[in-house]
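In practice, a research group might receive sequence data for several interacting partners and want a quick structural hypothesis before committing to experiments. The following worked case mirrors that situation: the sequences arrive first, and a predicted assembly follows.
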Amino acid sequence: MKPTAFAGLGAMGFPMAAHLARQGQTLVWNRTAATAEAHAAQYGTQAQQSLEGLARADLIVTCLPTSQEVWEVMRVLGPHLQPGTVWLDCTSGHPSSAREQAEWLRQYGADFLDAPVSGGTAGASAGTLTVMVGGDPAVLERVQPRLAFAQKVVHVGEEGAGFSVKAINNTLLAANLWAAGEGLAALALAGVDLGAALEVINASSGRSNATENLIPQRVLTREFPATFALGLLTKDIGIGLDLAQSGKAATPLLAQVGGLFRAATTVTGPQQDHTAALKLIEQLNGVQLG
Ligand code: NDP
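A structural hypothesis for the assembly, expressed as tokens:
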């Protein structure tokens, strides 16, 4: 079997590439080369100094902040690819970029799958990510057994469909998080104990991942561990709203969420954990959650 390559060893990519290494020869590249060297030392992968060094692989996996950075990497590496190579992009990217990148790679005989992931850094470490894939199902079938970081792989449609589903999923995450934050601020101002309130909500119909996990573990504890940057979530909501706009969908609630998270990102900072968006709700209400 030819090697697998991974470009982008960030919060997600570093543990994802470690799972690939359990299956066979894995080449890794990172913009900051020291990270690739550290990965090689820890997991027995082969750090590449240049992007071109990844071209011996027949499966290239990328996990970069946005489709913009994927284009930067693709324009350097693409012309060196062997025909038949599959480029699996795990970035939470833009559906229109997926279609353009798939078209661009075809000139080098390579196939593109948009394959963003959910499950967070904990899921990446455990190898239990969900992957939502857009593109040719026959191409996915060829590479699916090699996706050792995944617990669930779902083909969701044509090129761009994976990015579309991911963007809407994350827009829903943001909506749930914000709504729960506002509700808890109202309860705090009314003098209700938030731990007790969450115990009830999580046994009732108002619960969500935000109330069950994110808020108790990250907000009430004041830890806000930066595993998923607020700036990246706000980027995802923007993609979700672009999707709604291009389909002429009526999504006034989601548009509101976009504005709120843009404001929270400006006030709190894009590098903060996404749950730090609730600090803006705290400011608006003059109350601390937890
Ligand atoms: P990080 O910021 O932790 O990592 C980003 C990676 O991209 C780093 O390896 C960084 O390299 C590299 N990079 C940044 N800019 C460039 C560039 N111009 N050229 C080449 N490489 C570049 O991000 P995450 O791992 O958190 O996120 C990656 C993707 O996964 C995003 O699309 C995000 O939305 C998505 N995602 C994130 C989740 C999470 O919980 N964190 C969950 C699910 C999806 P360097 O080390 O040099 O900075």
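Before designing any experiment, note the following. Strands lie at 4-7, 26-29, 46-47, 59-62, 86-89, 111-114, 117-118, 129-134, 150-157. DSSP finds twelve helices and nine strands in the chain.
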